[in-house]
Amino acid sequence: MPLFEAVGVRKRFGGVEALRGVDFSVEPGEVVGLMGDNGAGKSTLMKVICGAYRPDEGEIRMAGRPQVFRSPRDAAACGIAVVYQNLGLVDQRSVAANVFLGQEPRRFGLVDTRRMRAEAREVLTTLRIRIPSVRMPVAGLSGGQRQCIAIARAVHQGGELVLLDEPTAALGPEQQQNVLSLIRDLRERGKAVVVVSHNVDHVLEVADRVVVMRGGLVSGMRDVATTTAAEVVGLILGNAPAAAHDGAPHPSGELA
Ligand SMILES: Nc1ncnc2c1ncn2[C@@H]1O[C@H](COP(=O)(O)OP(=O)(O)O)[C@@H](O)[C@H]1O
Ligand SMILES: [Mg+2]
Description:
It comes from Streptosporangium album. Residues 4-240 form the ABC transporter domain. Keywords: ATP-binding, Nucleotide-binding, Sugar transport, Transport. By secondary structure, this protein is α/β, with parallel strands linked by helices. The protein contains eight helices and twelve strands. Helix content is 31%, strand content 26%. Helix 6 links the parallel strand 9 (161-165) and strand 10. The longest helix is centred in the C-terminal third of the chain and has 16 residues, at 173-188. It is globular and about 55 Å long. The two termini are 35 Å apart. The protein binds adenosine-5'-diphosphate and magnesium ion.
């Protein structure tokens, strides 16, 4: 049974139908790369999944059970965690505080800093995230480290399905690799991940399956094991998938 399913999801903003009947599912422990041109509906779908938007039509199911999310809090209670592009970290606060943000352990009514630091260290070690000290403010961390802290928080706060929006877009090559290996670690720990990305190479590197959206619909799906970058680019551009089978770059491949 899929961990998560969206069935026939529609979402309209005034005159724009951003989602026109989307069927989308994620298996337990699966990494799905969600791709598609700008305006395809990827972010809107992510926001429906994490409870930020309510669909106009269609159903959301978690482990087979229909769910109505009134807010991201409802989705979080169901095990869905989202890391937005801005990460939502508080720069002046420590790494430990950011892992717990809003859910700090308390003792006699006060934040239990000792326990918070110990648990934060444990979370980072488990996810193989290397940070000099959990006491340092996140302002002092690199972009890649910040991304990893935001992901660690999502997992620590109970995420079974973790949604990542362009997690590697703003990073240098080495930090990109750190984030990609963190995504692999999440899968090893049985977490399911949906990663929105424009980077075909990154998706082919970490995902089990690629789902391509176009014009508010899922327009194609491929198992990573049996597809090629050219084929995925062809799907994103809306070309017949057969045209990309020879592996040659597509003549109109502006996205490549
Ligand atoms: N809050 C909104 N209000 C109005 N239109 C929106 C809103 N969010 C998205 N849209 C429109 O819905 C379509 C899909 O957008 P989006 O989900 O952001 O696509 P993507 O993330 O794939 O680039 C676009 O035409 C976009 O302009
Ligand atoms: Mg978007």
